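Notes from the pairing session

We agreed to fold both candidates in a single pass and log them together. This is the raw record for the first candidate, unedited. Please don't reformat it; downstream parsing expects exactly this layout.

Candidate A
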Amino acid sequence: MRQTINTIIAFFIILPALLLSYQLGTPSISNTKAGIGEYLNEPALKIHPTKAIKTVPQKTLPSKRQDAKELETSANSVLAFDFKQDFFLYEKNINERRPIASLTKLITSAVTLDYSRLDEIVSVSKEAIQTEGNSGFLREGELLAVYDLLAASLLESSNDAAYSLAEYTGNKLVSNQETNTVPVRAFVRAMNQKFNDLGLVNSNFSDPDGLEDSKSFSTASDFANFIKYLRNNPNYDAIWKILKLKTYKTQSKNNIASHEFKSTNSLLDELDGVIGGKTGYTNNALGNLLLVLKGPNNTEIIYLVMGSNDRFGDMRKLIDWVNESWEWPKQK
């Protein structure tokens, strides 16, 4: 009888421990570093990301000063976003759809890097050099590396370079069953698919350079979240390396031409802590400007003005306003 009672007591002691052990368990293989690495290296069209749930310690968030003044700018949409903490510092019409002009080239660069290496060689086509608008003065038939064309597109805002990247990468995307598909159209479809996969559904693109601004649009909110994605993904480090450059010199691999691409972002010389930036302008879009700056407490802040009559002046006002209106807690 005593042995039976001892057995029953032991059963009720061991059972909860077994259940707890089962619940704690070990992580599934999909959460290991190898699994995450494989996910990051997947092409964009296969990525279906889910939002991570994270809790930001309250002590790292800034507080707004009581004497903060109103911000006045000419821009239609304005945003300041502490994206590491998912904290908006300033919002104006951030869900309004607007043409983004040459900010589009950041998406073109990202899709290019999803499918092409930096050292791959591209032959510049006649169609590329006939592209309207800003030109990197490329020559038909010259051979340039993908990195060279990224620099021309992001610094000089070269439409012929953006077209060359889209044409080259688009040829990889055209399947055997779609031989009649124009490569640049296939590339633009990948641009839209990338935004859809990221859940950024208030955007649409119809070309790789932002010229077709009557058909292409995004919102400050969508675009800022795309920039957050670019900053958090090491696959796009080359973009940020280029965006910090004031000039970039290169020569075509077949010695047809030499090039010096100069940044259109005049604020590179004015501001400290610039991580990267991109300009954009068309008559319909007006002035657009993106800047990513280092912020207090190891934060990074995305600044964006869209539809501005004075994009650089409005950006200065926005940055000054954030610095004067918000206070971050001191870190030990």
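Candidate B (folded immediately after A)
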Amino acid sequence: MMALGFVAGMWTASRRCVRDGLAPEKIADLGLWILPGAIIGARALYVVTFWREQFAGKPIGEIFSVWHGGVVYYGGFTGGALAAILYIRLKKLPLWKVADAVAPSIALGSAFGRLGCLLNGCCYGRACSLPWAISFPEGHETHPLGSPAVPVHPTEIYDALLNLGLYLGLAWLYRRKKFDGQVFGAYLVAYALCRSFVEIFRGDYPQYQHYLGGWATPAQMVSIGILACGLLLLALLPRPVLKQG
């Protein structure tokens, strides 16, 4: 699902970028830089976050076993962004035009990724009795001590639907943007709010990973910074000067 999300994201971005006079092949090449950066960043943050539960005392090779599952979105976003900035600087491309072209597709890729989380059984929600609650197969973490399945919030589906809606909204905004960087700034703000909302229903974090008196998850803490960055970009990025006629 991550691979499908990446392909769908880069394909839609390469088609969208023409509006800003960017060569589609440049965006396609950008994907070859983003992919390894995103994988390294996503895995690195996962290892740091869940070191105590899954990696302490185990062979060092387990850190690199991405095929066993275990990536964190914000780590992947950071790693991919750093790789993208390096590519953009080397190729002397306009940073904010590229960022705007790619931003909606990041949300689309995330929608696929969250469906992968559902299939993998990670990022699950808290126990609930709502009609749309889901139960995972026997042997999953939501079966403590071999007890019957515990119905939980389908947080992966919540996240996938919100990201799909975000993709459609940002694609609409891209065709109407007033300045370069507006779409990317809007993505940062909207994603941080959507992610923080879904985190309310998450049930997979150990107790020690709840902050600010127990109500904030690690992702919500990072979302505060992402939200602030998005608001600053929207406030500080230069607007085109209208000619007086």
